[in-house]
Structures are given as structure tokens and as C-alpha cells.
């Protein structure tokens, strides 16, 4: 299943900075007619509107606020591609004070927020011919790093939900993409202490739209991610992407 974003309408969550901003700009470069910049504070998208004009439309989405997502789905009723980029990170090990609270916070945004977005926009995508839905997961969804174990747990859960969406949305002609970046040059990356090992967010944006165009599910966009993806490839192809079904007992 392939899809060309040229002349289509795209929605990107967390599009005012970091990876999300670069994704928005890549969509415009590839000829998207309109990109909804879905952010918690619409004023934060003013610079994007000033730069790109009416091809960028700010819309309020807070992944922790179901009402904002439902309202955005009504506003963006013409959308063909949804890219759920927004997410949060609390740098906590499983043994740290406050780790349970950190995991609850991360699960609410990174997992339940994904589900809220999918539930609100799946009918919109179906009504507009199917389109595509991309989720920013992480290499942390398949490998846990002890100093950010709670974040890794939330991303493992979001990856599991993304796999389910791949099968659920296939029936309506919506192609699902699971994106697994390694360390990326963003504010979140700086907070996590990635430093010089972080890769350019442009690699992520390019890889997402290439995957949408080529009908790929897994995306490993940067050098560290490519290394993890190469080791994971057999399992991904033979288990995750297979038509394996669980028969009732």
C-alpha cells in the first residue's frame, strides 16, 4: 500500500519544534496542500504560519485532553495523513523515586494519547479514502535503557498499539507506519543527555514520507536505529509483519 502526499492534507502533532517541525516542513517540500500544526498552544505555531502562509493551519491538540482531540478531528475533517509525533520523556529508572508517577505520565501521553488520536482520526482517514497514519515510537520500544526504563516501557506499549493499528486500519485502506528513531537532535534529546551522538531530525522526516510512499511499516531512520533495525529485521518480517493469527483455545 503506497501513498503520495502531494496535494494532500497532513496533520502533525507536536509540530511547533524538534522533529515535528521538520516533519511539517518536509510535508510542504513534498507538495502537501495543507499541513495542520497540531500543538497544545496554537500561538506557538505563529512563526510557521508567518513562514509558510495559509498552507500551515494551527489546531489545538493536547494528547492529555480528549476533548481537544475530538474538536481537532472535526476541524481537520479533510486530513489524509496523520503523523503522531508528540510525546514526553521522564528520565527515570525503575528504582528511582517517582518512577511510578513518571510511568503513569508517560503512558498517558505516549500510549493513551496515541489511542485517542487513532480513535478520533481513523474515521476521518476512512472518509477521505484511507490515507496513512504514522506513529513516532523509538528504538527504546524494542530495547530498554535502565536510566530511562519508564520511557522505554511506554514506547514498548505504543509500539504494541501501533502493530494493532496496522492490522485494524488495513481494512479501511489506511497504511500505518511505526517510526523508531535513535538519539535525535531535539530538546528532548538534550534533556536525555544524548549530546553529540544525536542525529539530525531531517533523517526522521525524510524516512517517514519515504515509508508512506513505499508502503513500509517499520522505519529505522538514523545510524543507531539502522543498527537496531538490522538486528531486529528477521523478527520484524517473520513475526510482527506476518499474517500470524492466534486461534481461540
UniProtKB/TrEMBL annotation:
Q: What is its EC number?
A: 1.-.-.-
GO MF entry, a single one: oxidoreductase activity
- Matching InterPro entries, A to Z? NAD(P)-bd_dom_sf, Sc_DH/Rdtase_CS, SDR_fam
Keyword list, A-Z:
Oxidoreductase
Keyword Transport belongs to the record: no
Look at the named UniProt entry and state the broad enzyme category this protein falls under.
oxidoreductase
Do the record's keywords include Oxidoreductase? yes
Q: Which domain of life is it from?
A: Bacteria
> Belongs to which family?
Belongs to the short-chain dehydrogenases/reductases (SDR) family.
NCBIfam families in the cross-refs: PRK08264.1-6 (NF006120)
What is the name of this protein? Putative oxidoreductase
- Species source reads Stieleria marina
The root-end lineage is:
Bacteria, Pseudomonadati, Planctomycetota, Planctomycetia, Pirellulales
Amino acid at each position: 500500500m503506497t501513498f503520495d502526499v502531494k496535494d494532500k492534507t497532513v496533520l502533525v502533532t507536536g509540530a511547533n519544534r524538534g522533529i515535528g517541525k521538520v516533519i511539517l516542513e518536509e510535508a510542504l517540500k513534498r507538495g502537501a496542500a495543507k499541513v495542520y500544526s497540531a500543538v497544545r498552544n496554537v500561538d506557538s505555531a505563529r512563526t510557521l504560519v508567518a513562514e509558510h502562509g495559509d498552507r500551515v493551519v494551527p489546531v489545538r491538540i493536547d494528547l492529555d485532553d480528549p476533548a481537544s482531540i475530538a474538536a481537532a478531528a472535526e476541524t481537520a475533517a479533510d486530513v489524509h495523513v496523520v503523523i503522531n509525533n508528540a510525546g514526553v520523556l521522564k528520565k527515570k529508572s525503575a528504582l528511582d523515586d517517582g518512577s511510578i508517577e513518571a510511568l503513569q505520565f508517560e503512558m498517558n501521553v505516549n500510549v493513551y494519547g496515541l489511542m485517542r488520536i487513532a480513535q478520533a482520526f481513523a474515521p476521518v482517514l476512512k472518509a477521505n479514502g484511507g490515507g496513512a497514519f504514522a506513529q513516532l515510537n523509538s528504538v527504546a520500544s524494542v530495547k530498554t535503557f535502565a536510566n530511562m526504563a519508564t520511557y522505554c516501557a511506554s514506547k514498548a506499549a505504543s509500539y504494541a498499539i501501533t502493530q494493532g493499528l496496522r492490522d485494524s486500519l488495513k481494512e479501511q485502506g489506511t497504511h500505518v507506519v511505526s517510526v523508531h528513531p535513535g538519539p535525535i537532535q531535539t530538546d528532548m534529546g538534550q534533556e536525555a543527555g544524548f549530546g553529540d551522538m544525536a542525529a539530525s531530525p531531517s533523517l526522521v522526516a525524510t524516512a517517514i514520507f519515504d515509508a508512506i510512499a513505499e508502503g513500509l511499516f517499520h522505519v529505522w531512520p538514523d545510524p543507531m536505529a539502522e543498527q537496531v533495525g538490522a538486528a531486529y529485521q528477521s523478527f520484524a518480517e517473520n513475526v510482527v509483519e506476518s499474517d500470524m493469527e492466534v486461534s481461540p483455545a
